[in-house]
Amino acid sequence: MSTDFIAEPMARSFRWRFGRGQIEILIALLAALPLVVFVLYPLWMILRESIHHPDGRWGLDYYDLYIRDPHFRQALFNTLTVSFWATLATVFIAFGYAYALKRTKVPGKWLWHSVILLPLFAPSLIQALGVQFLLGRNGIVNRYLGTDIDIYGFWGILISNVLYGLPHAYLVLSVALSGADARLYDAAKMLGAGGFKRFSSVTLPAARYGILSAIFLGFAINISEFGNPMVLGGDYNVLATEIYNQVAGQANFHLGAVIGVLLLLPVLLSVVAEKWIARRQTTISAQATPYRLERSWWVDGPMLFFLGGIAIAIIAVMGVVVVASLTRLWPYNLSFTLQHYSLDVPGGYGALWVSLKMSLMAAAIGVVVATMGALIVQKLSSRLRQVLYLLSVVPAAVPGMVLGLGYVLAFNNLSTPVYWLYGTVLLLSLCTVYHYHAQAFLIATTGLKQIDGGLQEASQTLGASMLHTTRHVTLPLIGPAMLSISMFYFMHSMVTISALIFLVAPGTTPAAISVLLLNDAGNLPQAAAFATIIMAAIISVILTVKGLAWFGGRFLRQRRVG
Amino acid sequence: MRFKSVAHAMALPMTLMIFGLAMISISTAHAGEITVYTSLEEPEIADYLVAAKKDMPDIKVNVLRLSTGDLGARILSEGNHPRYDVIWGWALTNMMDPRVQGLLQPYQPKGLARVPARFKDPNGKWFAPTGYMAALCVNTDRLKRQGLPMPTGWTDLLNPVYKGELVMPNPASSGTGYLQVVSILQGLGGEKGWDFLKQLNANVAQYSKSGSRPCSMASTGEYAIGASSAIVAMQAVRQGYPVKMVIPREGAGYELEANALAAGSPHQHDAERFLDWTISDDAARLYGKYKEIVGIESASDVSKPTSGDMPSDVKKMLFPMDFNQSMETRPATLARWQKEIEHH
């Protein structure tokens, strides 16, 4: 939609020098270059691993071998089944949650918003541990209610994946629901549409793009999530753990690469499907009047109940880990202690500094990369745009372990110009930036999609330059999305594990990896303690940023008034 | 003019990124520094490094610790561009992988004569001063509540009363799991071993991906019995969980923890000194604190297992493993295990 009006004036001014096509290609190349280096190249190394035989031959033998294996077919079936249900549940709950916060007048919005983001603050491993402490065979529920619940397998993966996916889907959906044009609702009302009719004919279509993004994102996360099935999957094998079996268990990179490549397929399919449906996205037009929220306890009451239920579930899972870290020996000795906070991992608290440094770098690089990417993709003509778009969302389909493997194969190689990156904290940051690129890019795109081209056009017609329009119209409008992106990156870098085990070097081991190591060693209380420290660190950084933003805003307003 | 502004808009982020790149210092080990990849446990590593620093004050040892499987993937993926000098305390079965062997260079550390033949490679590419063995973690609290008898070995675990209370590591993803399966197969011989594994499978609740996880599940009382390794079991006991370590009376399978010098080690001289140190008396003295198996002969008097939970005649309980056979038959064994046991 925005292609023509931006490209047209741009092209007009350059026509004397370049053709419009060349300019576009130049800009597209600039945006594509980092994606090629940090996404495509490592992926190519993986693809190569899956079709290149040790004797130098090329062929699909590994695929053939694997697809014939009933073991693999079972894992594939399990993956699709559990991902389907988990995605459905995640998007359904996240939509209700986002709707309650954006379209009703429930009290305590700040609180509800903070709670649903909690799962982003801790390594997913820890949240799986929380589910185990609560619902495991010797969990709180079974022990104190005398029940005999066994969640290992399908239900364990489903519950923990839904919890893990919720904040991701919520972030996308709440951006999609945050803007609404009151005129449409007024019109619908005047035409006699009831509450439900208004919801189905105005709200849902307007949020269509966000819902599809959330489904796509949820599916991609579910399909590649690895920590949860490791802890709670029991014998319910899924592809993400199959990769672990092949790569870490049997050092069989070829088959690991095959699974990695096969995992890409369903995600590519869902991208294509999404493009097909979302071709016509409604936007907030420049004439929109903001939607006025009205209190209606018929809606707000049940919504509050719903929010409370979800929030309690999240707090219980995260909270039980914090409690476990403060008890002498969960679940046998529940007396209070701080002893687990004296970490006896080499590096100890130093790992936290590595994490902070890496995460701040990832946030800074990531917000630039994702926003620029979304801006550029939006302004390209359709074919180039589709290529770049695909390139931007592909990382969501890549399991961390596969991406990490691709990074080592790609960057620990003297023939690579950026060989020197290997072993640096910067590469850890870059790996995280591109591992989560799809999510960040989608947040930015969803934000941009809702800005009507008319606003930008008006600005340009009035003689504002591209830069001016970007700075004074586009950026302020996607400012909230940009803040979300940098926060998103910061949090993910603090907790990400799977891709990094291939890239950490002595002295650059981030805290989340230390948690993994502690958990590996069976030292659950210390793992819980370190995870709590990570959560505390993330929360304090976020509060600091929010505080600064608040004071900054006040300062600017005062100065303007003065 | 507009082109200029587009260029500006693009230039800012680009400059930021280049600036960011420039700020990064490249982290490589300098002279007097070596990089060591290991799968030993954190507490022991810390202890060893303090002693090593005392004996070799001029060498700074940078350690990267990963679990056995993760480290294997890391080593193989770095391939011919190793970023490490030494592999320290890594499962021998993994090190015997021909692809890994190709990345090592032979080195005979000082005092290697003290290491018995079965603890070192005839070609000189590895030597294993220490080892660990399989053990069961039994949660006494859960045992009592479920009214179950205390098992003494693998054969006891065939008893149907344990159905759904036993967790084993998946041999396809865990070295500990593989050594348990191999010790049963080698102990009973061929088909008898497979029959035994099939019967055992009837009681197994789940096969975990990692080797330490069965014990950690038994520790928290999720299941009554977790088949793991002695080192993990002793740690659970030390932490105070209601866990008893049981060494299977049929004989415990074990794994050796091997050391080796990387081919193309960037700091070979210092790396060699470190390898010498790993079989020195000072090191051997420390091994007794953590290891049930120490492959340094004169060390037997200086290193007695000090943990109260470890039987003193531990060497007699070891099942005589055939590592060459265990390595060579690994793919076939795992394929059969997955076909006949995991998916049965």
Helix and strand topology:
The complex is a heterodimer of chains A (562) and B (344).
Chain A: H1 3-14, H2 20-51, H3 61-68, H4 70-103, H5 109-117, H6 124-135, H7 140-145, H8 154-178, H9 182-190, H10 195-224, H11 227-232, H12 239-249, H13 253-277, H14 297-326, E1 327-329, E2 333-336, H15 350-379, H16 382-393, H17 400-411, H18 425-435, H19 437-449, H20 453-461, H21 466-495, H22 511-520, H23 524-561
Antiparallel strand pairs in A: 1-2
Helix pairs in contact in A: 1-2, 2-13, 2-15, 2-16, 2-17, 4-8, 4-10, 4-14, 6-8, 6-14, 8-10, 8-19, 9-10, 10-13, 10-19, 12-13, 14-23, 15-16, 15-18, 15-19, 15-21, 19-21, 20-21, 22-23
Chain B: H1 2-23, E1 33-38, H2 42-55, E2 60-65, H3 68-78, E3 86-91, H4 92-95, H5 98-101, E4 104-105, E5 127-139, H6 140-146, E6 166-169, H7 175-188, H8 190-201, E7 204-208, H9 213-219, E8 225-229, H10 230-239, E9 243-246, E10 254-262, H11 268-277, H12 281-290, E11 293-294, H13 314-317, H14 323-328, H15 330-342
Parallel strand pairs in B: 1-2, 1-3, 6-7, 6-8
Antiparallel strand pairs in B: 3-10, 4-10, 5-8, 5-9, 5-10, 5-11
Protein architecture, described:
The complex is a heterodimer of chains A (about 550) and B (about 350). Chain A has about 550 residues and is mainly alpha-helical. Helices cover about 75% and strands about 0% of the residues of chain A. A two-stranded antiparallel sheet of chain A has the order 1-2. The longest helix of chain A has about 40 residues, at about 525-560. Chain B has about 350 residues and is α/β, with parallel strands linked by helices. Chain B folds into two domains: about 35-130 and about 255-310, Periplasmic binding protein-like II (D-Maltodextrin-Binding Protein, domain 2); about 135-255 and about 325-340, D-Maltodextrin-Binding Protein, domain 2 (3-Layer(aba) Sandwich), CATH 3.40.190. Chain B is built from 15 helices and eleven strands. In chain B, strands 1, 2, 3, 4, 5, 6, 7, 8, 9, 10 and 11 form an eleven-stranded mixed sheet that branches. In chain B, α2 (about 40-55) links the parallel β1 (about 35-40) and β2. The radius of gyration of chain B is 23 Å and the shape is globular. The N and C termini of chain B lie far apart (about 70 Å). The model of chain B is unreliable at about 1-10, about 20-30 and about 300-310 (pLDDT under 50). Classes of the chains: A mainly alpha (about 550), B alpha/beta (about 350). Chains A and B meet through α1, α2, α4, α12 and α15 of A and α1, α2, β2, α3 and β7 of B.
